[in-house]
Amino acid sequence: MIEAELKARVHAPEAVMRRLDERATARVEVYRDTYYDRPDGSLEKADRELRVRTVHGQDSTRTVLTFKGAAVDEASGSKPEHETVVADADEAHAILRGLGHVPVIAFEKRCRNYSFEARGRHMLATLVRVPEIDGTFLEIETRVDEADVTAALDDIRAVLEDLGIGPKDLTRETYTGAVAAQRR
After folding, report:
1. What range defines the domain where residue 24 resides?
2. What CATH number is associated with residue 108?
3. Beta-bridge mates of residue 85
4. In what residue span(s) does the CYTH domain sit (predicted)?
């Protein structure tokens, strides 16, 4: 499946949050992400990602192992995504290191997630703050077959517009790149 996703900088986070609160109940979570690569950097060079994410919510903690393939839509950066929940975060990290992968960057994301139906699709909207980066971001995603990416992105753009987010606010900036730049 492809994670059709658009990300935007949010200039009025409180207004967007109010609009999202009208659509769904928020789930507040803190993500602790660690990205891995091969020692030669070949995953990044091939536009692929390997991540261990531990999600701390109000009532539970879970860890997810994610692999993202190269972008299938250059304008949005939408990628094939494969995820699975793992029982033990420390073991997931140990397995990746044991297979020769090295941690490249780790950081925290503070998220407010909203799951809802829009335009006939299940969507996830996430308001994101990364302590090391200025600003608030909004990601909206839906999972689709590759043949449906363009239509799904059009639907996401319509939802963004309903939330007061225009095309000029869209960004392809990655959190990993922005955090790495801050740390240099």
Report:
1. 2-183
2. 2.40.320.10
3. 64
4. 1-181
